């Protein structure tokens, strides 16, 4: 989940927060956002013209499985917000559509065709914005710290990001006993969690799996199970998970 805010700008009857319909990152590390054209951020960006308009985007990472305390982390990006204009619109629309196939219903058709026939798309209800990142920060399961703009621009998406929700839900529904059995890999700590009733996979990336163990008293802790080496796709993930489960088997 993501929200965009412009400090000092808000509607009288609203919070001033804007939830982008979709977002993506350019090769240069700018964030492209598709937002409702009548939201506070869109109006502020349109009226700012060439003035610097500062904005903050907060991203909340929520586990796609049913567990208490589902928020896995938060990230903040602050920078300068501008509308995507003129010749940049087609390129930005293509990039957004590539990452999020929202299509012409969200106004991307007009961006792809700068001079559409009258009435072809009917309205301009959506606006594409660009956030040039000046600073960032993250607070998640691995710790808290700043993120430099160059590091943000150079970062590559995890190869499992598009599949994580489905994979975690599958592990929780179809492999609950095997996931619970991973506690045998925790040594002394595993002997404690062996009596715990519930084990739910809460995070998955190319480096490993994180599981939350919970006992009858609703006390819980997370344990990380690293893969022998980073996986590059779902096929390699299957092999890595089989290796984990085999190592934990009695």
TrEMBL record:
Pfam families: DUF2470. Residues 165-242 form the DUF2470 domain. InterPro entries: DUF2470 (IPR019595), Haem_oxidase_HugZ-like_sf (IPR037119). Gene3D superfamilies: PNP-oxidase-like. It comes from the Bacteria. This is DUF2470 domain-containing protein. It comes from Streptomyces nigrescens.
